[in-house]
Each structure stands twice: as C-alpha cells, then as structure tokens.
Amino acid sequence: xxxxxxxxxxxxxxxxxxxxxxxxxxxxxxxxxxxxxxxxxxxxxxxxxxxxxxxxxxxxxxxxxxxxxxxxxxxxxxxxxxxxxxxxxxxxxxxxxxxxxxxxxxxxxxxxxxxxxxxxxxxxxxxxxxxxxxxxxxxxxxxxxxxxxxxxxxxxxxxxxxxxxxxxxxxxxxxxxxxxxxxxxxxxxxxxxxxxxxxxxxxxxxxxxxxxxxxxxxxxxxxxxxxxxxxxxxxxxxxxxxxxxxxxxxxxxxxxxxxxxxxxxxxxxxxxxxxxxxxxxxxxxxxxxxxxxxxxxxxxxxxxxxxxxxxxxxxxxxxxxxxxxxxxxxxxxxxxxxxxxxxxxxxxxxxxxxxxxxxxxxxxxxxxxxxxxxxxxxxxxxxxxxxxxxxxxxxxxxxxxxxxxxxxxxxxxxxxxxxxxxxxxxxxxxxxxxxxxxxxxxxxxxxxxxxxxxxxxxxxxxxxxxxxxxxxxxxxxxxxxxxxxxxxxxxxxxxxxxx
Length: 499
Prior knowledge:
Blueprint: H1 7-16, E1 23-25, E2 28-30, E3 37-41, E4 48-53, H2 57-73, H3 81-97, H4 99-110, H5 114-135, E5 142-144, E6 150-158, E7 161-165, H6 171-184, E8 188-192, H7 199-211, E9 218-220, H8 225-234, E10 240-244, H9 247-259, E11 264-268, E12 274-277, H10 283-295, E13 307-311, H11 312-329, H12 348-364, E14 367-371, E15 374-375, E16 383-384, E17 387-390, H13 397-400, E18 407-413, H14 416-424, E19 428-429, E20 431-435, H15 439-448, E21 453-456, E22 471-472, E23 475-476, H16 483-486, E24 489-497
Parallel strand pairs: 7-8, 7-10, 8-9, 10-11, 12-13, 12-20, 13-18, 17-18, 20-21
Antiparallel strand pairs: 1-2, 3-4, 5-6, 6-24, 11-23, 14-17, 15-16, 19-22
C-alpha cells in the first residue's frame, strides 16, 4: 500500500530534511579530529547529498577508547539482563517511530526505492534489534559434569570491543545483524559504515542513545575504508572485527588481524549463487524466483541468484518467462516513485564497473538475451536495466565473477551430475536453489550444493531464526539466529573444588 506516499511527498521530505553526517562517539556527535569532510553524491540523481566527517585513525582511537571504557566500567555488560532488554526493545520501537525518516535517509544514500526502504529495510532492522533484545534475559550459562567434590561453571562471556564494518547495499539490515547480537551479548561496538551509506548508521546510534544505551557502548565513525576501516581492523584494542563486504577486502581484514593482535574475525563475503532448474519444474515459479532473486535491489545482493543453471531443453523457454516477469513486475523507476521495484545502482563508478564486466563477457562469447543496459541517463542517476546473458560455459567471466548488478547469467546442463558440477564450480558458497517436482532429487541436490543456504522451489525466503553466512570464499561465521551471539562471546570455565 502506498497511500499518501507519492513522489512529491518524498521530494518534500527531502527538501525539508537536515542531513547529519557527523560521527557519534561517546554518546554525542563528533567531527573528525582534523576537521576534514567528504560529500556523498546521490545515486538517484547525481546531485550532492550529505556532507560526512572523514574519520581517520585518530578518530578510531577515540571511538575505541570510549567503547573500551564503557566495557571496562560494566555500565552495559553488568546491567540487569531485563534492563538491557528493555533498552533494546525501546530502541526498536524508536526505529519504527522514525521509520519514514530512516527510509528517506537510506534511499538518499543508496538509491533503492523508498517504499522498499520503508516496508522492508526499516522493518527488518527494527525486528532484528527487537529479536536480540528479547534474548538478553534468556541466555544461560552451564554446569559441566564433574565429580562430587567439584563444581565447574562454564560461562559465556562477551569479547569486549567489537569493530563492525558494514557494506552499502543493505545498510540498516546488516548494521542491525551486527549490532543486535553483539550488544545482547554485552559487548561495546564501534561501527564503520561504508562511506557510501552512513546516514542511517548515525541516526540509529542517536536513537539507541535516546532509548537508554549508555554512552560509549555504540559508536559510529564515518570515513573511507582505507582510512577509518583499516585503522579499525588493525587496532590493538579491538577484540573482534565483524565484516560484511567483498571477498577481496575480507582477505585484507584477515591479514590485518594476523599482523596485529590476532583479533577474532567473522566474514560474510561475496557470492555467485546457482539456481538450478530441472525440466520437470514449475517454470513460472522458477522464472519468478530467478528474476526477483537476481534483480531485487538492482542486483546488489551478496546471495543474489546470479547463475541460472537450467536444463538445456527448457532454458530458452525459461529465459523468455524471466523476461516476461521482469517486464511485468520489476519496475525500474526513480526511487521516490511508489511503483518502483528497483532503483539506482550505488554510484556511477560502480555502474561503469558493471558495464565493463559485461563488455568483457561479450568479447568472450557470452550472448545477451535481453536488457542489462545503462538507462535513465537524463536523470543524472546511476541506472541500469535488468538483463540476462547466456554463457558458453561456467568458465565464462560473467558466470564466475560477482558482478553485483542486475545481471543474470544462464548456463545449460544435460544431467543432474553436470548441474551439480556447475553449481559447485565456484570459489563462493553463500546460497543456492533447486527447482524440481521430484522431491527425491530436490533433497539430494540441495544436500549436495555447497552453500550456507539452499532453497527448494523458492528463493530468498529468510527469517531471523535461521543463520546466514557462507562456505568457501563467501566467508565464515553466521549472522541472524541465536547462533550469531556465539561469535561475539567466548567460553570461560570457573572450577571450584570443595573441601
């Protein structure tokens, strides 16, 4: 339902908005120590957006010191669990109360449809904070089995200061995936959002403080990855880095941890997820899943269904159905248009990178079935139509590289064994799917796909109750579910012998 949410409504909200790009350290707004800033160009129209503090190593030092002081004081970790729960639940409610503001800020930064920001991203982020808030008074320690004269208490204790580095494709959602479990476990957090998407990170930090989160427990440092992000990953007083982003940067972060204090690292990285469709499948359902699974959020989704592994006899028919679904349902428009299902890519530099990858793929012999073109150039924004290419084989670059745009690559197969070989012939292992009416095959293939999440006859259905993360070079560690709390904790044994 769009109701009063017209394009004009959102434009007026933008015109009236005050965009805060200052960092949030020790419970208050802060400028960069050297006073430097940078301007974010809006992807929806190419116009200047917010001005942000350009944090560097000295600013990371300030934020980490604040987080460490808060942790050492016990102002959060020693608070009664029911009180921590109350604060986190109030925080979630404040996010809902400010949902229009948060949705506008998210769309200004990343160019996604504002109705998606409002009805999906803000909702899921608030639900995540609530989910982990509810866990605060439901986490138990253990008593290990011992002899009659001993008592061994096994305690789950917070790590300390968590450095969270998050990407620009789903800022609110992925920030909440880190913040919820880290804070529920009793840690302090320093968040370094992507330089392209910091507005909502700053705002939810302010709302957390308003809800009662003590100063220093949640800090935000804005800036560039090679400056603030690297400084956070190398910091000697950070106990863990939780990172979501590219595999390339994930490898750098692992190296920084090894070079410094051996801090814990959790990585949710890239993907090239296969969607296998057998000839006996419901092709309409498969086409819808393939189109939405790949093109939603303009293809800027780590687990997007970017490889269509289709049985040869039905591949052409399936591609036609995908084109029909795309034309009928996946409307590309200005992000303030209520009808928009997809909006702009994150920035011109990324759009040009995607186009260059397409050109290289075509030179190799991949053929365009439809779409995947630069469009809406008159707007000044970074827009690209969804499209499908047919690869000669899984060795083609379009079938192997994470494009991170609305580009689906189709690869034919003839046998189940070949389909699985293609699906698993990738350095990634984030997600996958199989479409077939043969349930024996469905379970056999889903078990054999080497990925953290595999769907049967659907795609991209999720829940906070299920863990999310990858195998291979898609990283390790899990977001979402009760299991996410484990990575922000360690186990401590306290052994007592009775006389």
